Amino acid sequence: MKSQEEYLRRLKKWLRDTEDVPLEEMADFFAKRLSDYEEHMSVWEKSYRLVAESVPDECRKILDLGCGTGLELDHIWKKHPDVEVAGVDLCRDMLDKLLEKHPDKHFTAVCEDYFQYDFGNKQWDAVISFESLHHFLPERKKELYQKIYRSIKEDGVFILGDYIACCDEEEELLRDVYMRRRKQSDIPKNRFVHFDIPLTMEHETSLLQNAGFVIENIIDEDAAVIICRKPVGAVRN
Ligand SMILES: C[S@@+](CC[C@H](N)C(=O)[O-])C[C@H]1O[C@@H](n2cnc3c(N)ncnc32)[C@H](O)[C@@H]1O
């Protein structure tokens, strides 16, 4: 309990200290930080491995939402060297780095917004997303989870690795600051800016279940890994 209080105290201080720093457009944010991006993300090493271990053995086709430079794919391709992957990301520079690292893989880079991109119907054995979806409000995720669900083959999986709020207070605090700062800066509704608005595990899993997924496993590390399955013979597809 003490450590949660301490965490919230530090978070509030950080929010006060950064109040006047303008919010950056999403793709620009990542493009500007590309040079030390992978080193910065190395803290999630264990979670990247857990994502790779959660990919089913028989998996042939993966859709990665917000694939960035492919840190989760580095691990997945070690285990499944021949798997076919489509990676969607807004940031061209991140995708170019991925292509540079893995010129020999069966990979399609899609430089688009995953809310707009058509994932198709019953196309993928697995959809994955790591550290990308915590930038969006639950209303948007609700639609996206339904789209992901439709795009996965029966018995396929959605593996979500993400930042989860420790409690309602963190979720509400970050969402309030996000909404206020967007309003103050007059940011249009459809423009993506970089700011973290994670949900609690309860709210995240409820959105996933409402889309039709069965939650099979939750590995609650620093970045949680939630393994969801699309059931065989589901009424909803
Ligand atoms: C923190 S990075 C994670 C990248 C990678 N999954 C990893 O763990 O290294 C988040 C990525 O999501 C991408 N992203 C954010 N919103 C997006 C959207 N609406 N459509 C496509 N990509 C998006 C960003 O451009 C960025 O590359």
Descriptors:
alpha/beta, 7 strands, 237 residues, 9 helices
General description of the model:
The structure is a single chain. By secondary structure, the protein is α/β, with parallel strands linked by helices. It has one domain: Vaccinia Virus protein VP39 (Rossmann fold), CATH 3.40.50.150. The protein contains nine helices and seven strands; from the N terminus they run H-H-H-H-E-H-E-H-E-E-H-E-H-H-E-E. The chain has helices spanning 2-17, 26-32, 34-41, 45-54, 71-79, 92-101, 138-151, 168-184, 201-210, and strands at residues 61-65, 84-88, 107-110, 124-130, 152-162, 214-220, 224-229. A seven-stranded mixed beta sheet has the order 3-2-1-4-5-7-6, with helices on both faces. Helix 5 (71-79) links the parallel strand 1 (61-65) and strand 2 (84-88). Helix 4 crosses helix 5 (71-79) and helix 7 (138-151) packs across helix 9. The relative contact order is 0.16. S-adenosylmethionine (SAM) binds next to helix 2 and helix 5.
Give the tally of structural domains.
1
Assign an overall shape: globular
User: How many distinct helices?
Assistant: 9
What is the N-to-C order of secondary-structure elements (H for helix, E for strand)?
A: HHHHEHEHEEHEHHEE
The CATH topology comes to Rossmann fold
CATH superfamily: Vaccinia Virus protein VP39
- Class by alpha and beta content: alpha/beta
User: Major sheet: order of its strands?
Assistant: 3-2-1-4-5-7-6
What portion of residues is helical?
40-55%
- Report the strand count: 7
